[in-house]
Amino acid sequence: MYPQCTPSYTNGSNVYTCNNVAIATTVASCEWTAAQKAALRSEVLAEYASEGITASDILDDASTLYNCHTYAWHLTEGYTNQIWINQTNDNGSANLSKYWSGSNACFIECTEASAEKIFYYSGDHSAVKSTVSGKYESKWGKLPLIRHDPTSVPSSYQETYRRYYKKIITITGPSSLCTYSSGTFTASGAPSGYTWTCSSNLTPGTISGNSRTFQANTASTSSWVAIYLNSVELARFNFVVADGPIIIATPQARTATVNVPVTVTPSVTGVTNYRWAISPATSNAYLDNTYGSYAVVTFSATGSFALYGYGIYPCGESGGATVLYTFTVSSSASYSMSAYPNPVSGVLNVDLEELDAASEAFSTSGSSVSGSGGISRARPVYTISLYSVMGMLALQTVTNNPGNIQLDVSSLPSGIYTLRVHDGTDSPPVTQQIVISH
User: DSSP secondary-structure letter at 371?
Assistant: First the structure.
């Protein structure tokens, strides 16, 4: 004769609800033997055959380790520790109802049609809705786990007195965002397989577990994110996207020289970083940096330009741009330079053209010319250099004949380079950004 289990129960460690509320437990001193499990299975099948319960309805063997409340409210929520949960704790205080009552409840009362959990409130019994239509699943005390009709339970459960509960699904996140800032939103209580969606002024970002980031693009008092499952909205979170304050400043007038970088650092109260934009937005003006506390701008042609700044605040970007600088760009060099193709992979063509005043002062041949008053002047020697983004000299040649100069860059690594031409005078060099792409 094998030893039989006669279980007793002692207090165990707490388990916790989805919102970290403690639930008291007890633990069994022993588990049914295989023979006891088989006997209990046979007893249930014999007694409830008239209720339509068959062997296929027994989903798990009898067990002393967990009860109906543990199965319905704990194990089916993804936990694996088998313990015994009672309706009240040792001092008679509410225990099981913490799952659906109080400010930290995980479940809310609902209709039977939308229920996930069922509580037989006069019979101290819990069940879950089965995936089989019209059926429940519940653990009958120390008996097996059984699939059954809602009323096909032991009479002590008082089957007609039932309440129904479903998971509270929520989304949490910031109540407001500024334009061009991002916020993280977290879904709680949602079943697996849901998808995120949002209002049209937002752009979805990365997903991490139950959380997703969204970037606010334009202001709206009706911004929202939501989660859906099978085209049904499970939860929605409403919030406000607002513009940061627009910068108030008087534009500063500056002069600049073609192909000479200009650095400007504005001083606006309350703003330390900016998003920069230049107008007109043509290839004749190049910003080294789009964001930052300062801007570096280079002009490749003469003309008038305006530099705009959007203020970057802790919560986002200002709702509009402000003209912070105006530029009048002139050329002090005696020549102009253009390089093509750009990007380039093989031969880079550099065209040097002397401006009108210089072309009159120099002859078309020979190493010296006669300027006004018969003074002989040497033709300038042009040094053409190509520098890497780290400032290292990658290629260099010299010539005293303007026109088309060809540089073979096929052996240089792909990257961003600076083409620099200088005529040996006090005038600043002419530069152009070149992209080598193989």
Answer: -
Is 374's pLDDT higher than 90? no
User: Is 119 part of any domain?
Assistant: yes
CATH of the domain at 256: 2.60.40
73 lies in a domain?
yes
Q: Give the model confidence (pLDDT) of 61-106 as tens digits.
A: 999 999 999 999 999 999 999 999 999 998 999 999 999 999 899 9
Beta strand residue intervals within 48-141, DSSP E: 58-60, 107-109, 117-120, 125-129, 136-139
Residue 44 exposure: Cα atoms within 13 Å on the Cβ side = 29
Q: Which two tokens stand for residue 341?
A: 């193709």
Residue at 1 is within a domain: no
Same-domain pairing of 301 and 357: no
Q: Are 325 and 251 in contact (CB under 8 A)?
A: yes
| Residue (of 69, 75, 54, 189) closest to 127 by Cα position | 69
Residues 190 and 130 in one domain: no
- Indicate whether 3 belongs to any domain: no
Show which of 304, 328, 352 is a domain's final residue: 328
State if pTM tops 0.70: no
Whole-number Å distance between alpha carbons of 57 and 67: 17
Q: How deeply is 21 buried, as exposed, middle or buried, from its count of CB atoms within 10 A (0-12, 13-18, 19+)?
A: middle
Distances (CA, A) of 395 to 18, 233, 349, 398, 408: 66, 62, 14, 11, 9
CB 172 within 8 A of CB 139: no
Give the Cα separation of 408 and 321 in Å (integer).
43
